[in-house]
Design a protein that fits this description.
CATH superfamily of the largest domain: Tetrapyrrole methylase, N-terminal domain
Low-confidence stretches: 1-5
Number of helices: 11
Bound molecules: S-adenosylmethionine
Mean pLDDT: 92
CATH class of the largest domain: Alpha Beta
Oligomer: single chain
Structural class: alpha/beta
Largest sheet: 5 strands, parallel
Number of strands: 10
Strand content: 15-25%
Distance between the termini: 76 Å
Number of domains: 3
Helix content: 25-40%
Order of helices and strands: EHEHEHEHEHEHEHEEHEHHH
């Protein structure tokens, strides 16, 4: 089969092959689209984050094709090879282990390169945990912020968490089950216990669960539980007058920072920024 015939809606067939970015399920294999299966069957090769994961889909739907591994560890070597194949007229599909490639998964770099080389690229949309969690959260979903995984480095993490606490839009975060408790406590400190939040666990899978209410109640729910599975968190945006940060905690932080050697002015400035307050409000706490 001519690979370019996959691009059925275009009038002129390009000389280069086409890169198909193919969304796959985030748990329930039946969420794969017929079009995705068609592409996976008919391209020259499928570049997979982990060939074992992709084989599960291929086997379930009785399709076979050449699979190569394409992930963050080998992308520097693989991207030039994929570009060469595309320029030779081969069409290639990129898939990640789950969901949409490029969304916290390999795919972003190759998409940028392919675009800059003027090669055709088509996305075959599939499931995405962020969108699935957002839509099922019942929180405002027409305008939102997706943060992916938060940085681990303290200073970067604090900056993003502070932004999230002040943002008026719904925010979506990916988090590992091991770090969920820590994240919930960080959100409690910055957003207050009343902020609405939904923890979506194991979306589309057998033990799918949506734990939601406010931050206090979600923390309580997970208090004595083993937290396992895949997790996406949806946080309601801040409304005016929503949260009065706990001034006693801020006062304690202020004293700690001054004890550690910071001036009252610098410590107040730092804590004001962190808590979304005016510097004078912190300064006047002591
Ligand atoms: N590319 C994927 C997408 O489109 O959603 C995301 C890949 S990212 C490496 C994996 C993270 O997505 C998980 O750690 C979790 O936060 C979230 N995730 C993936 N599948 C999920 C599911 N079934 N339920 C809840 N969250 C999920």
């Amino acid at each position: 089969m001519n690979n370019n015939s996959l691009l059925s809606h275009r009038k002129e067939e390009p000389e280069n092959g086409i890169l198909y970015i193919v969304g796959t399920p985030i748990g329930n294999l039946n969420d794969i689209s017929q079009r995705a299966l068609n592409i996976l069957q008919n391209v020259s090769l499928v570049a997979c984050e982990d060939t074992r994961q992709t084989k599960k889909i291929m086997n379930k739907f009785n399709i076979s094709n050449k699979l190569i591994s394409f992930n963050k560890h080998n992308s520097l070597v693989k991207i030039p090879k994929i570009l060469k194949d595309l320029k030779e007229g081969k069409s290639i599909a990129i898939v990640s282990d789950a969901g949409m490639p490029g969304i916290c998964d390999p795919g972003e770099d190759i998409a940028r390169r392919v675009k800059s080389e003027g090669i055709d690229m088509i996305c075959v949309p599939g499931a995405c945990a962020a969108i699935t969690a957002l839509v099922s959260s019942g929180l405002p979903s027409s305008s939102f912020v997706f943060e992916g995984f938060l940085p681990k480095k303290k200073i970067d993490r604090e900056k993003i968490l502070s932004e999230i606490s002040k943002n008026e839009k719904t925010t979506i975060i990916y988090e590992s089950p091991k770090r969920l408790r820590k994240l919930l406590n960080e959100l409690l400190e910055l957003c207050g216990g009343d902020r609405e939040i939904i923890v979506a666990r194991e979306l589309t899978k057998k033990f799918e669960e949506h734990v939601g209410n406010n931050i206090n109640k979600v923390i309580e729910f997970f208090r004595d539980k083993d937290i396992i599975g895949e997790i996406t968190i949806v946080i309601k945006g801040k409304r005016k007058g929503d949260f009065n940060p706990d001034k006693s905690i801020i006062k304690k932080d202020l004293i700690d920072l001054i004890d550690a050697g910071l001036s009252l002015s610098s410590a107040s400035k730092y804590l004001a920024k962190k808590n979304g307050l005016k510097k004078s409000e912190v300064y006047n706490l002591i």
